[in-house]
């Protein structure tokens, strides 16, 4: 699995997707977002170990897990890694 953020003019974007499909790459747009349920999060940090974009990290002063949604690529690895299931996917 690879998560990519593609930008550009629509016709160029469509050409790029067509090319990837012709190469045998299965393309699935992310029409969802990941969110954290604050009331459930125990700030264990398990999600930070698997987050490839650094959207989840530990604030060393407070030892709380911070979730920067702007950095989130939507890979959902944190959802699987979270012991209390505080991370969820919104469609």
Q: Which helices and strands occur, and which strands form pairs?
A:
Layout: H1 10-22, E1 33-36, E2 56-59, E3 64-67, H2 77-81, E4 87-90
Antiparallel strand pairs: 1-4, 2-3
Protein architecture, described:
With 91 residues, the protein is an alpha+beta fold. Helix content is 20%, strand content 18%. The protein is built from 2 helices and 4 strands; from the N terminus they run H-E-E-E-H-E. It has helices spanning 10-22, 77-81, and strands spanning 33-36, 56-59, 64-67, 87-90. The strands form 2 sheets. It has a two-stranded antiparallel sheet with strand order 1-4. A two-stranded antiparallel sheet has the order 2-3. Strand 2 (56-59) and strand 3 (64-67) form a beta hairpin. The longest helix is centred in the first third of the chain and has 13 residues, at 10-22. The model has no long low-confidence stretch (mean pLDDT 91).
Which short descriptors sum up this protein?
91 residues; two-stranded antiparallel ribbon; 4 strands; Alpha-Beta Plaits
- Envelope shape: elongated
- What Rg is obtained from the alpha carbons, in whole angstroms? 16 Å
Quote the average pLDDT: 91
User: How does CATH name the architecture of the domain at 32-90?
Assistant: 2-Layer Sandwich
* SSE order, one letter for each helix or strand: HEEEHE
What would you say about this model in short?
The chain has 91 residues and is of the alpha+beta class. The protein has helices at residues 10-22, 77-81, and strands at 33-36, 56-59, 64-67, 87-90.
């Amino acid at each position: 699995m690879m998560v990519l953020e593609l930008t550009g003019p629509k016709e160029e974007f469509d050409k790029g997707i067509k090319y990837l499909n012709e190469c045998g790459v299965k393309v699935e747009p992310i029409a969802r977002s990941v969110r954290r349920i604050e009331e459930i999060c125990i700030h264990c940090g398990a999600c930070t170990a698997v987050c490839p974009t650094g959207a989840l990290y530990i604030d060393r002063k407070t030892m709380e897990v911070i979730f920067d949604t702007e950095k989130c690529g939507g890979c959902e690895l944190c959802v699987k890694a979270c012991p209390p299931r505080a991370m969820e996917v919104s469609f």
